[in-house]
Amino acid sequence: MVKRSDKVAEEIHKIISELLIKGLKDPRIGFLTITGVKVTADLRQATVYFTVHGDDAAKKNSEAGLNSAKGFIRKEIGQALKLRFTPEVTFKYDTSLDYGQHIESILKEIGATDDGDNS
């Protein structure tokens, strides 16, 4: 059974992705990807997770750009979803990809030191 908050989260993901494709006019927002959206059961809070291709400065600039466009993004969500209450949007950097790359590098390092002798 699919919860209503999951459906709303999917729609918010689509709306924000379309806004990023059309282009928010903030030059600080770099090449970023929305990795997920979580909405509370009462549909009052939406947490948007994103990743940025680039260094820490690009991450901070993109997060600042998204936070400054928060009002515009919330207005667009409200117009598209037509809910009684438009969810308050919070942006958080998704560290799961960085963690996955760290684990992968450790596994490669282990594989490089393994000489193939299993005895």
Give keywords.
single chain; 119 residues; alpha+beta; 3-stranded mixed sheet; 4 helices; 52% helix
Overall description:
This protein has 119 residues and is of the alpha+beta class. The chain has four helices and three strands, in the order αββααβα. The chain has helices at residues 4-22, 56-68, 70-81, 96-113; strands at residues 32-39, 45-52, 88-93. It has a three-stranded mixed sheet with strand order 1-2-3. Strand 1 (32-39) and strand 2 form a beta hairpin. Helix 1 crosses helix 3. The radius of gyration is 18 Å and the shape is globular.
- Cα-based radius of gyration, to the nearest Å: 18 Å
Mean pLDDT: 86
Helix content: 40-55%
Low-confidence stretches: none
Order of helices and strands: HEEHHEH
3D shape = globular
- Helical run tally: 4
Largest sheet: 3 strands, mixed
Distance between the termini: 50 Å
Number of beta strands: 3
* Coarse structural class: alpha+beta
Tell me the strand percentage band: 15-25%
Spatial strand sequence of the major β-sheet: 1-2-3
